[in-house]
Amino acid sequence: MHTYTFKKSERLCSTIHINKLFQKGNRVVTQFPFRVLWLEVNEPLWVYPAQVLITVSKRNFKSGVVRNRIKRQIREFYRLNKHLLYQVLQNRNQQIILAINYIGKSKMNHEELKPAVDKLFQKCIQQLQTPDKL
RNA sequence: CGGUAAAAACAGCUUGUCGCUUCCCGCUUGCGGGAUGAGGAAAGUCCGGGCAACACAGGGUGCCGUACUACCUAACGGGUAGGAAAUCCAAUAUAAUGUUGGGUUUACAGCUAGUGCCACAGAAAACAAACCGCCCCAAGCAAUUGGGGUAAGGGUGAAAAGGCGGUGUAAGAGACCACCGUUCUGUUAGCAAUAACAGAAGCAUGGUAAACCUUACGGGUUGCAAGGCCAAAUAGGUUACGAGGUGUAACUUCGGUUGCACAAAACACUACCCGUGUUUUCGUAAUGGGUAGGCUGCUAGAUUCCGUUUGCGAAAACGGAGCCAGAUAAAUGACAGGUAUACCCUGCAAGGGGUGAAACAGAACCCGGCUUAUCGUUUUUACACUUUA
RNA sequence: GGUCUCGUAGUUCAAUGGAUAGAAUAGAUGUUUCCUAAACAUUUGAUACAGGUUCGAUUCCUGUCGAGACUA
């Protein structure tokens, strides 16, 4: 049975890690309307093997209410699907930090987003299993 | 019945599954159980206050803000009531201005304290002046020319020196008169703004203070990223105590000692001047800044709801009941179903079927206002119109 | 979160409250050239939005909207 919790230790809050992610992170997975940037880190003491950051651009959505709603939707999808990612990471003994960026230009329903999310996680897991060529 | 305007209230409810924030309880210490969780504007940050730190001898000048009156309030540039003005509608009267009733709006102190500005046009844009005119006198056959009076009419302009009618006159003119307007004085009413009445002044008192300014009143500065605490390492820092700078003269054991005179700079009150206070350099002792992180400030309050009383009202007093967010890369959600309203289709109607929250929008120290955004629903008041009796 | 500043042609800047809102550059058209560039001539194009004060507003006042700066 998978756990569907989403605690604070699963969220990316450290300023140092965020700066590192956006300066050095070069592993990108794109599946419309999402774009995922991730970076491998060496933090073996973490309880969970990943920390996540969700962003929605202010340029595309001026209203703060709409931005918050999209972020909550994404967080819900991540919460329900993260066990797929955790299995792979725990098998390989890796820790990563990742940023999920919403690059769509308009609001979307739950049903419209669902196939995109499924594909996104498949792509992510594929890229995780292929070794870093750089 | 519908329409317009203003004001007020609401702006979903509910079931299940999985999550998030804070608090409480339990233990197997990261899980289980329970409670709790966003608005009328949380927004803009436009005003005002609480709270906090620093500063709190004083005087003058300056700066900023406000501006009919009374009241409400912790306070306000907010609100309530009243007055005045402007404008619209209706009725009514007139030569014209008006009067009465109702609606809406008003940054409504003072250009009669002083200074400035009023383009173009126009004779003249403010201690007056005269282009076309009007009238008188003189010259001339006449056209016209010269001198004087005048400001009614024309013309210019956004604005032309009270309005209209009469008397008067060579023509005219508040030169004089009636009515209206304006200003001043007095009486009465009113807490007051002001109003009514009476009298006086012929009125050179054009407009502009959202031009400088004057008058009256108010304003210490900075904002919770304020401020306080914790903690490993190390120096410029901070605090306390002690000595003290420059010039000159005398004495001298040439190390200094004594007398006299004088500061300068920086900082604070403070934007400037006066004034006041502190510091400057050295030694000793104590303490330990900032950065990154955590804790605190942090939510019980000019509090919410109900009732009674007082007041035209804003509001106040009293009594009862209640506790109601506290995040920090920032919780308050997602999915599935039901449903009042609303919307769409159909129907003469009753009804039937479908969609099924969809407006503006998300607390960040806390309150009182203002402003702006807003799908709709309900209530009240006012106005005009239509229909029926 | 808090404190401030600024909005004028496509762009960079002007304009004391006075009317056709100016200059450079960019764009368009023409002349010149075998063609282009340069040069010359002509022309298009703007006061962020909404109210108010004033005879008259880019300018003064108020409110919105947008952009930017500072602050740990």
Please describe what this structure looks like:
The protein is globular and about 40 Å long. It has a four-stranded mixed β-sheet, sandwiched between helices. The model has no long low-confidence stretch (mean pLDDT 77). Strand 1 and strand 2 form a beta hairpin. By secondary structure, the chain is α+β, with helices and mostly antiparallel strands. It contains three helices and four strands; from the N terminus they run αβββαβα. Helix 2 (64-92) runs parallel beside helix 3. It has one domain: Ribosomal Protein S5, domain 2.
Short description:
This protein has helices at residues 15-24, 64-92, 110-129, and strands at residues 27-31, 34-41, 50-56, 95-102.
Give the spatial strand order of the biggest sheet.
Answer: 1-2-4-3
Number of helices: 3
Number of DSSP strand runs: 4
Oligomer: single chain
Mean pLDDT: 77
Task: Give the second-level CATH assignment, the architecture.
Answer: 2-Layer Sandwich
Determine Rg (CA atoms, Å). Answer: 15 Å
Helices and strands in order:
Layout: H1 15-24, E1 27-31, E2 34-41, E3 50-56, H2 64-92, E4 95-102, H3 110-129
Parallel strand pairs: 3-4
Antiparallel strand pairs: 1-2, 2-4
Helix pairs in contact: 2-3
The structure holds two RNA strands.
